[in-house]
């Protein structure tokens, strides 16, 4: 009986391998992965990429594809390693590491998404404030008032429902990418050689080059991240391709990441080449996205009005998407705590608490206006790196179903990049 079953499995595997091609669903997922990764985070990448001079920019161009592809492929493999088809990432963590680790991962997921929500609340306030002041010629209200109005409007949109938000985000992402590419092309005549005259950072020593390269990693992790959708992607491909899910999933990921790296790096290079390192330092000090800075830097109506509007749409889209994830994560944490204490909490009360918590904290942080890139470097990027880079590598060492992926140089590469990104947390202590 066992031999017959093995022969059947082998025949099925061979049959699926023979028929493995490229389907419409694969294209849909490729574009979906691409669209999830290219968002408002992209608008802060050129500032950190160019502010350190030419060397960090070159390092980023070399690392972008391998670090993005190998890390997301490892996470997909981790989800597919479950003995239970259809298990999502939290189920897989509990299966391999136990319930306590499941709780820790749930907590980490929340803290990977929640700081991004805070980043976007600051970014939206700064973008709207700048747009009112410089493009519309209107004196914006006090920062606390403006931040409160914007957050309340975003929360009102959230009340329209998850399905509407998801649909709106999926519609907006590709026009957003198209505008980014058109803007990158529009900037070509403004390219200059300033960055080549500043091959090393302005402070002019090796330590500053290493620091610039070090700090660019968490921003890259943040900007290219689409780990929240990897679990759904892996489950969908497993249903469709069975034993060949990993092979086909890797093909889809590679194509999505090639598209992502080419378009994002063209946008980054175009922005960096059209400005000087001093301009980028100024943009970082102003705590605004690259589009807002470009709008105020170039005296051209197209950039002046189109750039901040695109930035506002992109940040709003990303805020809403991350709000859904953050609120779901917070709800999950509260539910687990209540369950462990033999208590129950109604969904209505829980949603009210979550909404109030999100409103209060995002408004407070938007009013205080901390450094956006500082938050990405010290919070967002490092926590994402723990989940995306380190956890799957740890699983390869500890989980029998993952052993077949051990012994490759890509594992060492992913681990090193992950540890370096996490270590950026200690930057603030060095400062």
TrEMBL record:
One of its GO terms (cellular component) is plasma membrane. Pfam families: Trp_Tyr_perm (PF03222). It catalyses: L-serine(in) + H(+)(in) = L-serine(out) + H(+)(out). Keywords: Amino-acid transport, Cell inner membrane, Cell membrane, Membrane, Symport, Transmembrane, Transmembrane helix, Transport. Its main location: membrane. It comes from the Bacteria. It is a multi-pass membrane protein. It is found in: Cell inner membrane. This is Serine transporter. NCBIfam families: stp. One of its GO terms (molecular function) is amino acid transmembrane transporter activity. The keyword Transmembrane applies. InterPro entries: Amino_acid_transport_2, Hydroxy_aa_transpt. The keyword Transmembrane applies. The chain crosses the membrane at residues 28-47, 53-71, 104-124, 144-161, 168-188, 208-231, 252-275, 302-320, 353-373, 379-396, 408-430.
